[in-house]
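Exercise: predict the structure of this protein bound to nicotinamide-adenine-dinucleotide.
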Amino acid sequence: MTVLVLGGAGYIGSHAVAMLVENGYDVAVVDNLVTGHREAIDASIRFYEGDVRDRAFLEKTFEIEKDIEGVMHFCAYSLVSESMEKPVMYFDNNVGGCLSILETMEKFDVKHIVFSSTAATFGMPEKSPISETTPQRPINPYGESKLMMEKMMAWQSQATDMTYVALRYFNVAGAKADGSIGEAHQHETHLIPIILQTALKQRDDITIFGDDYKTPDGTCIRDYIDMADLIDAHIKALEYLKAGGKSDQFNLGSSKGYSNLEVLETARRVTGQDIPSQMGDRRLGDPDELIADSRKATQVLGWQAKNGLETMISNAWKWQQSHPNGY
Ligand code: NAD
Ligand code: UFG
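Solution:
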């Protein structure tokens, strides 16, 4: 039986592939390499290069991979600011991709899917921490597209015997513990890789976007989840569905928040580098604080975040130093 990993050459998908293989799963990968890297997955993995929106290609892949026990779906465009400028492109890829995948799964009678949703589906929540009952009110096309994907899955699972788990990640960070794979986005926007590029002197400094938020030090607070913990949740979710668990959604974070300045200080400590920084203006659309309430994932999936911010930064630093220019 095979786990088909869609978007398996991306940052998170490539770690899922590696950890699935380490745990004895047979794995095949689909990716169009729009933001992913072939080098991020082992050469021995069965790899299908193509777009999930291309039905003929996807059906052919499902035909070849006859014994798919479940799908992990990581494909998406996922930059908030880009989604504000190109909403249609985001709905096309994220929602269009989801449509094609659900149709193909139904056609080939594949029963389970675990997929990447996001804290961005919550928008600017009034209460923190954010639980599964917090209203989802996205404030950008990226978050909206992911909420639409959640709803498509929910309706499809009601109408058929397909079951799904939507995992709403908070801020994902880290790399494989040996530093062999990690985050290699061409247009990097995330805080931790930008901090580490600065530590490596690939950038002169890091600009912290705003210190007038309603938080103790004025900078935004985020909840960081380590890659190994995140993939552990995917594997637990897949096993839960295989065991007959009902379709559900889970918020995934460490349930602990760090301000942007605290992340910077931790990175200075872990790397032993100065990491020059400056204070800049707010970035559009950043909520003051996003912290997950992940108790439901603990109760239902038996999952718990184990690794802290230091581990995430330390592993990402190993990756950054050994791959200064990505793959
Ligand atoms: P990524 O861009 O590194 O990975 C996405 C992968 O999907 C890439 O390899 C890309 O080439 C592939 N892809 C995209 N569209 C495709 C298509 N139409 N057909 C085939 N392949 C396609 O992004 P990531 O950071 O690894 O994120 C993975 C998922 O997790 C995304 O769905 C994202 O929305 C979600 N997510 C990420 C974060 C985060 O902090 N990184 C937080 C919340 C949710
Ligand atoms: N930040 C800076 N300087 C930078 C980059 C980021 O100060 O150069 C700040 C941001 O303003 C924000 C914090 O660092 O306050 C975290 O920003 P990221 O861009 O690293 O992450 P986001 O919180 O914006 O978004 C991430 C994912 C989304 C996901 C969201 C959920 O990119 O896909 O987490 O919380 F939806």
